[in-house]
Write a structure and sequence with these properties.
The protein is α+β, with helices and mostly antiparallel strands. It is 20% helix and 25% strand. The protein has a nine-stranded mixed β-sheet with strand order 2-1-15-14-12-3-10-11-13. A hairpin with a 5-residue loop joins strand 5 and strand 6. The longest helix is centred in the last third of the chain and has 13 residues. The chain is globular, with a radius of gyration of 20 Å.
Length: 331
């Protein structure tokens, strides 16, 4: 795939969430260019849209490491009260020379100690009175990257259907769901399209070439499992909102296409050796050409359709990254 020109990077949240562009890329049909408000009309009555209700944490902490500024990203909880973390420079570059036993000084006198792992993801201990989530609410901010102008508020990183479930949520926003609004959800229901919920709490998601997705915590409730199985039995489509929903559903999918309720940690990696079993369509943002997310997109929609969509997105000036435009893939 061709590289993404810098002028196609979305550098700030759009003025209206559901006003972003929506490409409808369907097998054996020309690519269509719409607005996200047109999503209900791109689907059919009886289809099922599955969304991720994970909340987004203010998971970035500004600190110092041997006297130099550093940003610590909290990816999620680990065993024995530890946390998975990533270190970055203030301008967003990875820090890969960390060492076990090293400490990172954080706001309010808190210290993180690297225990094991690396060079990218470390297991760390971050003792803080009242628990880490409360501390992040006071001292943290959303994880951001250098292509953004300024630092958008946490509200900009929360989807309309996000709600806390008592656990540490997503380190980074499940961004495919960001353009949804109450009006879009009402439009889906008015057209006879079902909406079901699950949870997958994402870790840090800035994956590069050759990196597989990190283990992530999920919960697929019984009502959603039954809705997916019934939709497929009726010959209708199951449309996942994002790679997070796809990963959770495919984790609990049987070989025969039925889905069971489930909860735990998934290490599933979709790709040529493990294609999608139950997801028939995908609402997604636009990922960098080298991102490992593309393997999942191809596992659902096939290489040819994904590459056709990406070529059209570059030709038509679609905007990239978490505040950019959207695509509906219908193989």
């Amino acid at each position: 795939m061709r590289p993404v020109p810098p002028d196609l990077i979305a550098t700030a949240p759009p003025p209206v969430r559901d006003g972003v562009r929506l490409m409808v890329a369907q097998a054996r049909r020309p690519v269509r260019h719409r607005r996200f408000t047109d999503l209900p009309g791109a689907l059919e009555p009886g289809d099922l849209v599955v969304v991720n209700t994970s909340d987004t944490e203010p998971a970035a902490l500004d600190g110092t490491r041997t006297g130099r500024p550093v940003v610590l990203h909290v990816s999620g909880p680990g065993p024995g009260g530890t946390w998975s973390v990533e270190l970055r420079t203030p301008d967003g570059h990875r820090i890969t020379d960390g060492r076990a036993g090293e400490t990172v000084r954080l706001p309010c006198g808190v210290t993180a100690t690297l225990l094991s792992g690396g060079p990218r993801i470390w297991r760390a201990r971050i003792p803080v009175e009242g628990g880490l989530r409360r501390y992040l609410a006071a001292a943290g901010r959303p994880i951001t990257y250098s292509y953004l102008r300024g630092r958008p508020s946490l509200a900009e990183y929360r989807t309309v259907f996000a709600h806390p479930d008592g656990r540490f949520g997503s380190a980074e926003m499940p961004s495919a769901g960001r353009p949804f609004t109450p009006a879009v959800l009402d439009g889906l229901r008015a057209r006879g399209i079902g909406v079901a919920e699950l949870v997958l709490h994402t870790g840090v998601s800035s994956l590069e070439a050759g990196e597989t997705p990190l283990p992530e915590r999920y919960r697929v409730p019984l009502a959603t499992a039954e809705a997916v199985t019934a939709t497929r039995a009726a010959g209708r489509r199951v449309v996942a909102v994002g790679t997070t929903v796809t990963r959770a559903l495919e984790t609990v999918a049987e070989r025969d296409g039925t889905v069971r309720a489930g909860e735990g940690t998934t290490e599933l990696v979709l790709g040529p050796d493990r294609p999608a079993r139950v997801v028939d369509g995908l609402v997604t943002g636009w990922h960098e050409p080298e991102a490992s997310h593309l393997l999942l997109l191809r596992a659902v929609a096939g290489r040819r359709l994904v590459e056709r969509a990406y070529a059209a997105a570059l030709d038509e000036g679609y905007r990239w990254h978490e505040f950019g435009d959207s695509c509906l893939l219908l193989p």
